[in-house]
Amino acid sequence: MPIQILADPLIDQIAAGEVIERPASVAKELIENALDAGARRIWIDVERGGIELLRVRDDGAGMSPGELPLALARHATSKIASLDDLERVATLGFRGEALPSIASVARLRLASRPAAASAAGEVDAAEGRIRGPRPASHPPGTTVEVRELFHKVPARRKFLRAEATEFQHVLRTVTRLALSRFDVAFTLAHNRREQFALPVAAGRLEQESRIGRLLGAEFVANSLHVAHEHAGLRLEGWIGLPSRARAQPDRQYLFVNGRMVRDRLLVNAARLGYQDVMYGGRHPAWLLYLSLDPMQVDVNAHPQKLELRFRDARAVHDFVFRTLQHALATTRPGGAGAAPAPLAGLLRGIPDQLPRGLGLGEAEAGAYAAQQSGDAGGVSEAASPSTEAPLGHAVAQLHGIYILAQTADGIVLVDMHAAHERILYERLKSAADSGNAARQALLVPAVVETTDADAALAMQRRDELAAAGLVVDRIGPATLAIREVPIVLAGQDIAAVLCDALADIGLEGGTHRIAERQNELLANIACRSAVRAHRTLSIVEMNSLLRDMERTERSGQCSHGRPTWTRVTLAELDRLFMRGR
Ligand SMILES: Nc1ncnc2c1ncn2[C@@H]1O[C@H](COP(=O)(O)OP(=O)(O)OP(=O)(O)O)[C@@H](O)[C@H]1O
Ligand SMILES: [Mg+2]
């Protein structure tokens, strides 16, 4: 075939292939347009999973009748006019492609009225032909109606799933967008049944109630709130407690300057933030909002704008990593992230409301608890409920594995090995960190054959590697010699650690690999040195372990991420035994 210029409708259909995959992608584009138009309320109506109909109405700025055909023209946008604008773009859209792409694969009707105008107009498009504008009746704002998606593109239609599945995708997309903008109200209906109507959420409480409505009430209950700002970067959000991690990474939401993204760099930074407290193969839940100067991030890196390029990727990565790591250090009994592992199912099926007038009154029970904890095991520290330590006082060792402790308002169980392991691990780490010079010179340098590029990179980052404990010299174009190593890593396969670290630096601009490897080994040492099961501990020893736990960062989980303690409150015990108060 000779070279020829493609027909316009075909160009649009090809463009549609990049961004319009299924009804959920249409929902994303239309809702993003509504947000860009400054809408305060957005209504989304879906029929038959969005294959039959997807309608988005907003109360935003609207368009004049004359603009309507332009909105459907390829590469027509009101959002940028120059390369300069593109570099600082703050709107979600800027390509001027979404509406023409959708119109090329579906039937589209667009009705709009600018806020200040007295009359509305509408256009429709089918098979690439635009009809209108003609007068219409519409309140200030815009409605876009998309019908029969892919009805003329059987190849794409084949890939659509059952209506219920397509609706699940739409729901997931609307959920993410509703999480991205608490200041906008969202209403979603499927087959004329309302799924949710979310009012504007102004303060943190209202935001948490929206999150609860969309992601379930446990999400917030089992999360820590974080908010941190540094050098032009701001991170706010909710991060799931390690003890409530999930089998799948299906509760991870990330927004950068209000845009939902799936950015590898940021996901990796969050993973690193959890690395020390997460049980292998589990995934934390998180909902994170990063804001930074739009000039510092390139959003034009992916057709669906899901991936980003940061100007200073390293600074962003470290900021996110450190913010999470710092927040998670409070996962110790008595700390902000103290929620212990749940006693699964213990209280399931027991009614909240119990008949009153059975058993002890509240005051009596409180006094009883205080008296008991004072007596427990003849412990010297006298306990009054208000000043009592979060883990209370050891009462007994059970089956040679668990410590049973009594607190002012319940009981606590501690896995003594797991707890001791974390305490030792944190001590070893701080010893390793404080001795900045905790390096050991190798008798015979380890020679590593690598590439010219990696050898050059190692020299550029020589100081940084040395700070992490690796002193490296280049002894040939592609040959490195490791002269000093962190003491903990002596005798390990240090060449592999160096190669991995260089690969990280190449990809992410920095590396945590050496520290990670070092921590792995320290964790193993801690595990081997921690008290073994069946060693009998005295009450004094048990109490000192409990106090150590309260002081130790991250002691809510062992160095492998397993939980170290759990608790049952008196109120829960009362429910369990149906003791009314
Ligand atoms: N809901 C709306 N309210 C007001 N104006 C709208 C609305 N939807 C679209 N427009 C106008 O139509 C233009 C084209 O929309 P379209 O989604 O095709 O492109 P875009 O949003 O500029 O860029 P992108 O292709 O990246 O989404 C927009 O630039 C905007 O001016
Ligand atoms: Mg758009």
Please outline the helices and strands:
Blueprint: H1 8-19, H2 23-36, E1 41-47, E2 53-58, H3 68-71, H4 83-87, H5 98-105, E3 107-113, E4 120-126, E5 129-136, E6 141-147, H6 154-157, H7 163-180, E7 185-190, E8 193-198, H8 204-215, H9 217-221, E9 223-230, E10 233-240, E11 252-256, E12 259-260, H10 264-274, E13 286-291, E14 297-298, E15 309-310, H11 313-328, H12 362-375, E16 393-398, E17 402-407, E18 410-415, H13 416-434, E19 439-449, H14 452-460, H15 462-467, E20 471-476, E21 479-486, H16 494-508, H17 513-529, H18 539-551, E22 565-569, H19 570-576
Parallel strand pairs: 1-7, 11-13
Antiparallel strand pairs: 1-2, 2-6, 3-4, 3-6, 4-5, 7-8, 9-10, 10-13, 11-12, 14-15, 16-17, 17-18, 18-22, 19-21, 20-21
Helix pairs in contact: 1-5, 2-7, 10-11, 13-17, 13-18
Bound molecules: adenosine-5'-triphosphate and magnesium ion.
Q: Report the radius of gyration as a whole number of Å.
A: 30 Å
Largest sheet: 8 strands, mixed
Mean pLDDT, to the nearest integer, reads 85
Number of helices: 19
Q: Kindly state the number of beta strands.
A: 22
Global morphology: globular
The percentage helix is 25-40%
Runs with pLDDT <50, length 5+? Answer: 349-386
Q: Which percent range describes the beta-strand content?
A: 15-25%
Q: What separation lies between the terminal Cα atoms? A: 86 Å
Q: What is the assembly state of the chains in this entry? A: single chain
Neighbour order of strands in the largest sheet: 5-4-3-6-2-1-7-8
Which class do the helix and strand fractions yield?
A: alpha+beta
